[in-house]
Write a structure and sequence with these properties.
Layout (H helix, E strand, L loop, with lengths): L1 H17 L8 H22 L8 E11 L4 E9 L1 H19 L8 H20 L3 H10 L1 H11 L4 H30 L4 H6 L9 H15 L8 H8 L2 H26 L1 H27 L4 H21 L3 H32 L10 H4 L1 H14 L6 H13 L4 H26 L16 H19 L2 H15 L3
Antiparallel strand pairs: 1-2
Length: 486
Amino acid sequence: MLTALIVVPLIGAVASMALPKEREESARWVALLFTAIALVAAGNVFFALDTADAGLQFVDRATWIDSEVLSFDVQYFVGVDGLSATLVLLTGILFVVATLVSFNITLRPREYFMWLLLLEAAVMGVFVSQDLILFFLFWEGELVPMFFLISIWGTGRKEYSAIKFVLYTLAGSALMLVGFLVLGFSQGTFDMQALAEADITEAAISLHAVFLLILAAFAIKLPVFPLHTWLPDAHTDAPTAVSVILAGILLKMGGYGLIRINAGILPEQFDDFAPYLAGLAAVSVLYGAVLTMRQQDLKRLIAYSSVSHMGYVLLGASALGEIGLTGASLQMFTHGTITALLFVMVGLIYDRAHTRQIADLSGLAHRMPLAATFFVVAGLASLGLPTMSGFVAELLVFLGSIEAFEVQTVLAVVGILLSAGYILWTVQRVMFGPENPRWASLPDTDNWWEWASMATLAALIIAIGIYPSIVVDTLENGVLRTMEFI
């Protein structure tokens, strides 16, 4: 079943490119069909997962490389626990949303949707891989689609932003690969479960150095201050769908790797560095929030707010406790849906107003009441209003980290106040300021694919805010499995 999550988007990519030139507009329907099939498969994995089973489920496994000379093996090994299954579901949902908000793409649609589907296959592979080398290959597999999607279909300094994204990711990946090789050769396997169960006491280099090598890749992707500078540029110049995927899923690859590999395989080293990681988390929360307040471009504003909000993931994970890890995991899911809705809204506004400058936008609620409603929902969820999903995740992070890192947690709580300030200020200036005659003919959202995307994400945000057990019960299955190795 898990292999289908990878193969279905690949088939969709081939089908998209196989369309004749005169029918290339049909590529959007091909992409919607295959992302929908992948979503059904992801939903089946999520809802069929046995939360009482502490082991990996839906396992597909085959030996890929078996070297008797060097005494190691590399496997095609995929499986999920509650953490992986939840992120697989998030991936399935957001790629359908990304496809829908790309329905107005007219430039080379066959290639566009091919790269989007290849990106989905790579991300699905990251979340289900249980072999370090396989994980690395899928991790690297998202680079090429992202580069072309930003550099061809982006705006502004799109080539610069695409190259900067690739360079940052490649630098982290190179360090991560060294760490993986040292771990694998020290135990004769790259099997992530076997490595987590092994008592690793020595390797070719210090295990603390191995921890930092692997951490570098995940800290860049999360992103953690001061390794975050690629994110605002990539978000600003990427097309709307890529911003949705970048903020909604790709950042979560960093948090997932941090919990699955750094905490799961090297828990002693994680514990030694935990105070420093918690400090970096607090700095990321506050620094990201302060920079957010200075932004005049809506996309850059949301990008910097992501730096701040992903700091909560690092803080919850640093506590290395069940509540903190559950909060960090839930924060990844909820932030994915909330920022996806925010980027969908910004894309919708930009398509109509052709500007993202906050100073130029005023009183849009008079002309776009439906869009304004969803914008307010996303904003309130982002600042952590009770009954919205963001509140539950941040509360669990604070409850899980306050005992271990009191000062860092208090500083992170201050970030909530700052986020309330910049979100409410932005909503007031963009939506509820005086009506601007310049936008007198601005149409509200009137395409089914736009309101379907917005309604789906808003429903998820409210549903999880009211009844978080929808995903928390499943996430706890993955957290408890990780705790067994700590």
